[in-house]
Amino acid sequence: MSSSDTSSTLFSPLALTQALPFLPLSQAKVDYRVDLRSEEGLIDTLLRKASTRVMLVNKGKVAVPHGQGDLVDYESVHMRLAFLPGEYLSGALAENPGILAFFLGQESAGPGQVHDYIAIDISNAHQDTPLPDAAHVGADDAFGPERDTPVATGLTMLERAERQLDWVSLRGFAPHCSALEAGLATSASTLSMWHISQRHCPRCGARTQTALAGWGQRCSNAEDGKRVLFPRIEPAVITATVDSRDRLLLQHNTAWAEHFYSVSAGFVEAGENLEHAARRESAEETGIIIGDLKYLGSQPWPFPSSLMVAFKGQALGTRIEVDGEETEDAVWVTREEYMHALASESMLAPGKATIARYMIEEWLGHEI
Ligand SMILES: [Zn+2]
User: Fold this and answer.
1) Which of 84, 159, 178, 345 could form a disulfide with 155 if both were Cys (CB 3.0 to 4.6 A apart)?
2) What is the CA(190)–ligand 1 centre distance, in A?
3) Which residue has the higher pLDDT, 133 or 49?
4) 261 Cα to the center of ligand 1, angstroms
């Protein structure tokens, strides 16, 4: 095998197949370092390292530098996370139990050099901690034009961050940022939303405490064995179905915006496997029976906690019968018909950063 053959067989850790390109939101750019999560004092140690990068998350939204929040609706703009200096935050964490910290992992930045990533979750920050006197010195350009605001205002760094940084949703941020930051934001946002929604042990009802550097919770009840709880991930299937003429099946669901057309998707039922769910959803929504199914890829979809598993389906027939409840319309399109529909805006495509859009582009053979 020649070297070029070898390189063509090297898959990214994200790709089980090469059908879809890198999908935003998937985290593969940092080493999770799961082994470090149970280390005593890990967060505090890392916050004191100058090389550690600290991002902020608040009820699932992430902080970006001042002024960037207005960019979400523009095409071809680049956005980045606002990173804060960790050393000023360990005090706030110690004094405010409502503030959570997640260790997101490590990025290799050259021989012997690593950046550790931490997300500070201020969703439940209630109380304030005065900043140490020198806290404003070098306190990150993320604060933008107001970076020189004197600490004497009495605002804590986190309060200032909350006011002066822009906060954007993952949906708004992901299409515009690097793969690394999209992944970091996805992990942070997912954990943040989980900790907001679950504060008690689902088994015994006792309060839970954050564990494993934010990736788990521990039930506080000794009689319940202080069990460790993990975030639930809900699998969903999404299927791009083609017929024998390689036309794509697109559907419009009642819950969607007008003219929005996409492929079939739905949650996996208890006791069901992925391929059954894909075939069932198709049959329910459009009456199309799928034969062969090919795995295309997957994408975390943390709204709030799904994992989208994508397939390409081969239809056994073409007779469409929409259910009229969930799905209002479904239609077979050729590539030419689809491009024409997009141009005339009789059809709108799924948003950037969605796996549905990549699936349609895979069928189309080019970007939308
Ligand atoms: Zn319990």
Assistant:
1) 159
2) 22
3) 49
4) 44
Question: Among 113-127, 191-205, 225-239, where is mean pLDDT lowest?
Answer: 113-127
Distance 203 CA to ligand 1 centre (A): 5
CA of 166 to the centre of ligand 1 (A): 37
Which CATH architecture describes the domain 234-364?
Alpha-Beta Complex (3.90)
Average pLDDT along the chain: 85
What's the CA-to-centroid distance between 221 and ligand 1, angstroms? 6
Q: How far is the CA of 94 from the centre of ligand 1 (A)?
A: 25
Which residues, in sequence order, are CB contacts of 337 under 8 Å at separation 6+?
none
Q: What is the pLDDT of residue 257?
A: 94
How far is the centre of ligand 1, averaged over its atoms, from the C-alpha of 15 (Å)? Answer: 37
Distance 35 CA to ligand 1 centre (A): 24
- 207 C-alpha vs ligand 1 centroid, how far in Å? 8
- Residue % of the chain over a pLDDT of 70: 84
Residue 146 banded pLDDT, cuts 50, 70, 90? very low
Rounded Cα distance between 368 and 356, Å, is: 12
Among the ranges given (134-143, 189-198, 250-259), the one the predictor scored with the smallest mean pLDDT: 134-143
Cα 229 to ligand 1 centroid, rounded to whole Å: 9
What's the CA-to-centroid distance between 235 and ligand 1, angstroms? 25
